[in-house]
Amino acid sequence: MRLPAFLTFALIFTLSACTPATGPYQERIYVFGTLVDVTLAGVTAEQGRQAVAELAKDFQDEHREWHSWQPGPLTDLNAAIARGEPGRLTPHLRRLIEISQRLSAQSEGLFDPAIGGLVRLWGFHSDDPLTGKPPPSAQAIAEWVQARPRMSDLVLDGDVVRSRNPKVMLDFGAIAKGYAVDLAIEKLRAMGIANGIVNAGGGMTVIGQRDGRPWRVGVRHPQGKGVLAAIELRDGESVHTSGNYERYNEHEGIRYGHIIDPRTGYPGREVLSATVLHEDGSVADAAATALVVAGMKDWQRIARRMGLRLVMVVDQAGEVHMPQAMADRVRFAEDSPPIVHVVPPL
Ligand code: AMP
Ligand code: MG
Prior knowledge:
Layout: H1 5-18, E1 25-31, E2 34-40, H2 45-65, H3 73-82, E3 87-88, H4 91-106, H5 116-121, H6 138-147, E4 154-157, E5 160-163, H7 176-190, E6 196-200, E7 203-207, E8 215-220, E9 227-233, E10 238-243, E11 248-251, E12 254-257, E13 271-278, H8 281-305, E14 310-315, E15 320-323, H9 324-327, E16 330-332, E17 340-343
Parallel strand pairs: 15-17
Antiparallel strand pairs: 1-2, 2-6, 3-5, 4-5, 6-7, 7-10, 8-9, 9-16, 10-13, 11-12, 13-14, 14-15
Helix pairs in contact: 2-7, 4-8, 7-8
Bound molecules: adenosine monophosphate (AMP) and magnesium ion.
């Protein structure tokens, strides 16, 4: 039976007026050493619970599969490479290597997951809090820079990989969240959920909208001042922020961050944080890390080479640098907006 249009309206109005307004379904999962917040709109609590349970299971499997130092498929692969032997790949590891080879080449090697040995040398392959230990010796760092393992040292052959350099040690910390969040979003879509956010600390991807309006998300302030900016994200967009403020070791008053410049072997210092908005979460995540490494002189060139358009970089003085296209997408807090430098389009 078809109802006259005016009656349908009236019916909807009455129904919505009787139904208590319920916000989106929200749940928090602890995985990847961080908190992942899932927000779903237009679902019942039961649908929400089921969906998040599925995502949590995937995240746990992925965490185990590509963890950089807890024993599992990735540490087995790294051990094989160190012995000079071919290593066996899971489908995800193969995909992560393929994507990383491409992004590493585009970023002139500034994003390079082959530098796990260097990350470990700096003490970041540990679950323990970093406790003011001295940095590695200049000689150990120089030896590492000399050996310079790269993603391009890896040769894929079906589900087997060989390395031309036994110093390659894969660490997907700079891309794994973006990749995993995009997988989660794919899964939500496959479950028929069309509106939501999966937010894994430094990065997130959204689908659909919230009550007919774009999702509005916050970008963290790199100097610990809460939220730096708000961004409205469109269906399928991701935003990732990286910075050496996230994880660091402090020794004799100097902070040594976890994002390391493969050219020098030392943590990048000039860029406090880099934010990248992109339709591919893996690209946004890897690129945010690459731009922190690039420094104030090189970030625009690297962004162009990586095909980015929507980027925001915060320098050591807390000032923001971005092209107009990004400025059009972000809103700063009205009471204390930062100094903004608009750079030419990328
Ligand atoms: P993110 O928080 O996405 O910037 O990733 C940082 C993590 O990526 C670090 O904790 C390291 O595990 C790893 N990493 C550090 N420096 C690099 C680099 N230059 N290229 C790729 N991965 C890196
Ligand atoms: Mg990253």
